[in-house]
Amino acid sequence: MTMLVMTGTGTGVGKTITTAAIAALAVAGGQRVAVLKPAQTGVRPDEPGDLQDVVRLAGGDVTTRELRRYPDPLSPEAAARRSGLPALDPGEIAQAASDLDTAHDLTLIEGAGGLLVRFDRAGASLADVAWSLGSLVIIVAEAGLGTLNATALTAEVAGRRGLTVAGVIIGAWPAEPDLAALSNLEDLPVAAGAPLLGVLPAGIGQASREEFLAAARTGLSPWFGGEFDPELFAGCASAGK
């Protein structure tokens, strides 16, 4: 059984789409897949959240579980405090992940925002969950200017917490990449201290399930069952520019 903790360098970097892409490839490869979203914020009880997007894109064979939902678009700790709803304990998250792991080949744990976003007043975070599970960490990063610092900070925190970063994935590659994005194809693995395991095109969250699977296969490393070659991609991207 395999567990991967999915964290971002911030919000809006394509973490849910990346999670769905990894799940889609695993399902296509015959694996039993679960996605755990410990805390969904900024979504009301009657509204679709990130897990609905995962199922829409990766298919109904994916098992999903959400532990808390808070209406305010804040960190889980702040949203819990404002709403008066119970905060999340990292032990509860780890137990839920372990339970899913026993019945699945791959369990993806998708955080809210970055690695140190707080779940409770004591400062528990996704980093604590990853450590307790002994899980590898996947960093989802932006493509352009400013991403190197955020990625390096995330990787450094992971290392200081005794975590292993398996790789970095660009969650939304622009149709017209600028010089910074092109340069970052080489520099992001250095910042992360881990390989570039994929580049997913911006906007694929609106694709059909078949188109999404094709994009996931092209955009993700063979480590996930895809065909992505970072050197080939960088060459093609530079030539296109």
UniProtKB/TrEMBL annotation:
<dbReference type="GO" id="GO:0005524">
    <property type="term" value="F:ATP binding"/>
</dbReference>
<keyword id="KW-0093">Biotin biosynthesis</keyword>
<feature type="active site">
    <location>
        <position position="37"/>
    </location>
</feature>
<dbReference type="GO" id="GO:0009102">
    <property type="term" value="P:biotin biosynthetic process"/>
</dbReference>
<dbReference type="GO" id="GO:0000287">
    <property type="term" value="F:magnesium ion binding"/>
</dbReference>
<comment type="function">
    <text>Catalyzes a mechanistically unusual reaction, the ATP-dependent insertion of CO2 between the N7 and N8 nitrogen atoms of 7,8-diaminopelargonic acid (DAPA, also called 7,8-diammoniononanoate) to form a ureido ring.</text>
</comment>
<comment type="pathway">
    <text>Cofactor biosynthesis; biotin biosynthesis; biotin from 7,8-diaminononanoate: step 1/2.</text>
</comment>
<keyword id="KW-0436">Ligase</keyword>
<feature type="binding site">
    <location>
        <position position="110"/>
    </location>
    <ligand>
        <name>Mg(2+)</name>
    </ligand>
</feature>
<comment type="subunit">
    <text>Homodimer.</text>
</comment>
<feature type="binding site">
    <location>
        <begin position="110"/>
        <end position="113"/>
    </location>
    <ligand>
        <name>ATP</name>
    </ligand>
</feature>
<feature type="binding site">
    <location>
        <position position="16"/>
    </location>
    <ligand>
        <name>Mg(2+)</name>
    </ligand>
</feature>
<protein>
    <recommendedName>
        <fullName>ATP-dependent dethiobiotin synthetase BioD</fullName>
        <ecNumber>6.3.3.3</ecNumber>
    </recommendedName>
</protein>
<keyword id="KW-0547">Nucleotide-binding</keyword>
<keyword id="KW-0460">Magnesium</keyword>
<comment type="similarity">
    <text>Belongs to the dethiobiotin synthetase family.</text>
</comment>
<dbReference type="InterPro" id="IPR027417">
    <property type="entry name" value="P-loop_NTPase"/>
</dbReference>
<feature type="binding site">
    <location>
        <begin position="201"/>
        <end position="203"/>
    </location>
    <ligand>
        <name>ATP</name>
    </ligand>
</feature>
<dbReference type="GO" id="GO:0004141">
    <property type="term" value="F:dethiobiotin synthase activity"/>
</dbReference>
<dbReference type="GO" id="GO:0005829">
    <property type="term" value="C:cytosol"/>
</dbReference>
<feature type="binding site">
    <location>
        <begin position="12"/>
        <end position="17"/>
    </location>
    <ligand>
        <name>ATP</name>
    </ligand>
</feature>
<keyword id="KW-0963">Cytoplasm</keyword>
<feature type="binding site">
    <location>
        <position position="53"/>
    </location>
    <ligand>
        <name>Mg(2+)</name>
    </ligand>
</feature>
<keyword id="KW-0067">ATP-binding</keyword>
<feature type="binding site">
    <location>
        <position position="53"/>
    </location>
    <ligand>
        <name>ATP</name>
    </ligand>
</feature>
<dbReference type="InterPro" id="IPR004472">
    <property type="entry name" value="DTB_synth_BioD"/>
</dbReference>
<keyword id="KW-0479">Metal-binding</keyword>
<dbReference type="Pfam" id="PF13500">
    <property type="entry name" value="AAA_26"/>
</dbReference>
<feature type="binding site">
    <location>
        <position position="41"/>
    </location>
    <ligand>
        <name>substrate</name>
    </ligand>
</feature>
